[in-house]
Amino acid sequence: MKKALFICALASLVIPTVVSATSTNSTSLADPTIIESKSHSSETIPASMEPGVVIEYDENNKMHIVHKPNLEDFYVEVEDLEQVKSNTAKNNNTLKLEDNAIVPNFENEKLFLPKPQPGMRVAYDGQGLPAFIKVNGEVYYGDNNKQMSAPAIRNQYVYGNITWYDDAIGQEKHKLGPKDCATKKGYDEPDVGTPIIVTKTDDGKTDTLTKWDVGTLPNAILDIRLEEMRDYFNVPAGYKTKNGKKISYGSFQGKYIHK
User: Fold this and answer.
1) What is the pLDDT of residues 54-97, one digit of tens each?
2) Which of 259, 155, 146 is nearest to 211 (CA)?
């Protein structure tokens, strides 16, 4: 993959900040932030890990890293990371929305960090945040694990941050493929198998994916697969310098819609 294909990722954004339901007004989305490692207590799952990592707790409630993607081929080498951050922060695009479009505001949403329990599996997204929590294969909705109301936002464009994850199994024990995706738990939960039309807003590139998972999705409206992020939408997992310093964006500004 040529480096030039990845430079469009400088438009990556992290947090949607404005709620709108009209296309008559222009809407701005927030500047990106860099997710850094955070310390965590054994009383909760880690607040952050390396992008794409999956952890699991054994019968003794001990944490194990069960998957860690090799991201070297998904990073773009640059001379100056600070310049990358500066250029990205300046690209705070103004959008003209379709009629009845939505830009959800999740910036004040509290990061969901449950207590670990045997059989709990947590997959971290492209920003290093805990996006998918399951217990013995079932989506975790809380201590009683009873599913909350599961609305479905049909026939409306939802705008915001789209990131990636690299876990292997989605809902109903479905083996996830490169054209599968996940919606946000408790916000938009269409049936598994629902076609999701995804568009990268800076260049209009569009693909049809299939909903086969649901997660907490901190700072995101949709999670897609790592290969789809890079190979189809031409967005790298992050940037690195020749001496090994790295920053991870793992996201782009986009929109999706489904019936």
Assistant:
1) 999 999 999 999 999 999 889 999 998 888 877 766 555 567 89
2) 259
pTM of the model: 0.82
Show the tokens assigned to 130: 């805990």
Among 225, 249, 253, which Cα is nearest to 236's? 249
In angstroms, the Cα distances linking 44 to 87, 114, 142 are 36, 5, 13
Q: Are 202 and 11 a contacting pair, CB within 8 Å?
A: yes
**36 burial type by CB count under 10 A (0-12 exposed, 13-18 middle, 19+ buried):** exposed
Contact residues for 95 (Cβ-Cβ < 8 A; gap 6+) = 26, 27, 28, 29, 103, 159, 201
Phi, psi of 171 (to 5 degrees): -70, 155
Element of type H or E holding 196: strand 195-200
Q: Distance between CA atoms of 181 and 208, rounded to whole angstroms?
A: 10
Count of beta carbons in the 10 Å neighbourhood of residue 57: 18
The set of residues, in sequence order, having a beta carbon less than 8 Å from that of 248 and lying 6+ positions away, is 34, 35, 51, 126, 127, 128, 237, 238
Residue entry with tokens 């998918």: 132
What is the tens place of the pLDDT at every residue in 89-122?
A: 655 556 789 988 999 988 788 898 999 999 999 9
Is residue 52 classed as helix, strand or coil in its secondary structure?
coil
Q: What is the secondary structure of 7-34 as a DSSP string?
A: GGGGG-----------SSSEEE-PPP--
- What is the DSSP secondary-structure string of 240-251? E-TTS-EEE--E
DSSP helix/strand/coil, 141: coil
